[in-house]
Write a structure and sequence with these properties.
flat; 5 helices; single chain
């Protein structure tokens, strides 16, 4: 059995869903006074909705998992960008 991580990521992450969730997460994080501990749950649910919308509102297990994984990947991408690019500006 040949396991290739790049093929697995490409099969289970939708870039458009990640971008949608990162924008909504950024707005939620910066323009509301709500607690950020609920942000991963919010973007996972939004990812499922957006992924379903992209596929004609079908709900199959693959679409649900792809949406949730893509939504959660947006929180990880946000943290990578924040810590890599803005780490020095927060220390000042």
């Amino acid at each position: 059995m040949d396991f290739n991580i790049v093929e697995t990521i490409n099969a289970n992450i939708e870039v458009s869903t990640v971008l949608f969730c990162i924008v909504v997460g950024y707005i939620y994080n910066n323009y509301t006074s709500a607690n950020n501990k609920h942000l991963p749950t919010l973007v996972a649910i939004l990812g499922v909705f957006f992924s379903s919308w992209n596929n004609g509102f079908e709900l199959t297990p693959h679409i649900v998992l792809t949406g949730a994984i893509s939504g959660l990947a947006s929180t990880g991408l946000h943290q990578v960008i924040k810590q890599y690019f803005f780490k020095n500006s927060e220390e000042k």
